[in-house]
Amino acid sequence: MNVTELLRSLQAEHDETAARAYQLREQMEQFTTVLAETETRLAELAATRKVIDGLASPDHEPAPAENATVYQRMVTAFNEHPEKLFRVRDLHEHPDLPTGEPSINVTRSRLGRLVRQGFLEQPGRGQYQKRT
What one-character DSSP code corresponds to residue 125? Predict the structure, then answer.
């Protein structure tokens, strides 16, 4: 195999790999959009449930909070303290989430999604607040 053939082969493999990367990026964007919509719907359902529980008769027991998803607990924390600036570790202490590093990074990612969805704003690096 001469150098010209080797370069053609290398370019062909590069083009195929670039096309595959482009397809995967498109799929990730689609999944991210669908995930954001689903998480927003979950937050809406949690808020609706909370309102309905509040309107229910006094003898009705509200749903247990431990069944709430992490997103629901995060949204609840921001709704309870709309003016407060939260850092990731502060947020973990509020709804009793684990504070291990992997969990912190997942929470940071979730907060980023809530910012992109327009529920939160990020007034400073590492600070999150409910959008008003």
Answer: T
What sign does the CA torsion over 110, 111, 117, 119 have? positive
C-beta separation of 87 from 104 below 8 A? no
**Buried residues in 52-67 as b, exposed as e (16+ CB within 10 A):** eeeeeeeeeeeeeeee
* 17-26 core/surface letters (b: 16 or more CB in 10 A; e: else): eeeeeeeeee
d(CA 43, CA 48): 9
Of the candidates 63, 79, 65, the one whose C-alpha atom is nearest the C-alpha of residue 91 is 79
pTM of the model: 0.47
The whole-chain average pLDDT of the chain stands at: 81
pLDDT tens digit string along 111-132?
888 888 888 898 988 888 988 7
Q: Are 128 and 115 in contact (CB under 8 A)?
A: yes
Whether the Cβ atoms of residue 33 and residue 116 lie closer than 8 Å to each other? no
Q: In 3D, which of 27, 24, 128, 18 has the Cα closest to residue 83?
A: 128
Residue 124: beta bridge partners? Answer: 127
